């Protein structure tokens, strides 16, 4: 591999760890504030609801792309991003401010400015910094909302769906190209050179190198494996070994990195790849390995 490929790949791994670290920091605060998506975190039907909503949202996006509704799609994505920022900043300001009115005003202001920056100045470092925050907040919300077993079921379903939609039906490629063309900030951008500008070049072909000037990674690829990391941290009863984190949570992090390494190995060959089979598979295997070496199997009792 060339140097301009190795460094971006390392950056992706660092980005994944940062997302998971921030998600772990946010999760107790969000849990205490009651920012959960589901009432019963152990109900397996939550996984069905999540998956069904994802399918409906995907279908809507594909229809908008097909029928020239990209502007509407951009507004929908923008509203979703703004909502995630609301949850994140509300949790953060709730820690430091006792005055709820001031906290609410600052939450709305910071959320509006962050969303505005993503759309009005979408340079790669703006997208990446705020994208990390979006991914961490999303992973935290769903991690505190779902216990370990429903998360594992969800990740398996998402991995299968991602593989089918990329390799079989290929509609995920159509969706990705359509979303990218709107420049909606749901991808993180890792440039190959310091001179690269996402505003000027997008993901177009670099004129000097006859190749793209940056690698792209969907935010979903950062969010989904991180949900299990957060869920194991919040819901798993296991001895804490490092900064209040248990062995299964630590090995889940390592497993997600191993999955990312496997994914990037195939990405380096130049073909579009489904990210979730490797990422979700890695984090699940890493988590199960951690459970095996620490004897933390109490979560299975909730299934029986």
Annotation keywords:
6% strand, two-stranded antiparallel ribbon, mainly alpha, 304 residues
Question: How would you sum up this structure, described in words?
Answer:
With 304 residues, the chain is mainly α. It has one domain (3-219). Helices cover 71% and strands 6% of the residues. It has eleven helices and six strands. It has helices at residues 3-33, 45-66, 70-96, 100-120, 124-145, 148-168, 171-181, 198-201, 219-235, 247-267, 276-294, and strands spanning 187-191, 205-206, 211-212, 214-218, 240-242, 245-246. The strands form three sheets. It has a two-stranded antiparallel sheet with strand order 1-4. Strands 2-3 form a two-stranded antiparallel ribbon. A two-stranded antiparallel sheet has the order 5-6. A hairpin with a 4-residue loop joins strand 2 and strand 3 (211-212). The radius of gyration is 19 Å and the shape is globular.
């Amino acid at each position: 591999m060339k140097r301009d490929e190795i460094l971006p790949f390392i950056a992706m791994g660092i980005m994944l760890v940062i997302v998971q670290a921030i998600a772990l920091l946010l999760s107790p605060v969000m849990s205490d504030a009651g920012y959960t998506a589901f009432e019963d975190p152990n109900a397996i039907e939550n996984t069905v609801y999540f998956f069904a909503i994802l399918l409906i949202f995907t279908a809507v996006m594909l229809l908008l792309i097909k029928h020239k509704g990209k502007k509407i799609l951009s507004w929908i994505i923008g509203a979703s991003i703004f909502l995630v920022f609301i949850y994140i900043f509300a949790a953060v300001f709730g820690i430091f401010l006792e005055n709820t009115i001031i906290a609410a005003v600052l939450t709305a202001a910071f959320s509006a400015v962050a969303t505005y920056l993503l759309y009005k100045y979408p340079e790669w470092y703006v997208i990446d910094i705020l994208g990390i925050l979006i991914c961490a907040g999303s992973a935290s919300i769903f991690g505190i909302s779902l216990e370990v077993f429903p998360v594992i079921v969800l990740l398996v379903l998402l991995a299968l769906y991602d593989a089918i939609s990329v390799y079989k039906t290929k509609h995920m490629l159509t969706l990705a190209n359509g979303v990218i063309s709107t420049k909606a900030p749901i991808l993180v951008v890792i440039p190959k050179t310091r001179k690269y500008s996402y505003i000027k070049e997008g993901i177009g072909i670099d004129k000097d190198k006859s190749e793209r000037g940056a690698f792209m990674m969907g935010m979903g690829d950062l969010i989904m494996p991180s949900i299990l990391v957060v869920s194991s941290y919040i819901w798993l009863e296991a001895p804490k070994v490092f900064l209040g984190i248990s062995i299964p949570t630590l090995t889940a992090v390592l497993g997600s990195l191993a999955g990312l390494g496997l994914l990037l190995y195939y990405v380096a060959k130049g073909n579009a790849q489904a990210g979730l089979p490797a990422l979700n598979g890695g984090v699940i295997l890493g988590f199960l390995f951690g459970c095996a070496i620490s004897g933390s199997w109490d979560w299975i009792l909730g299934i029986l």
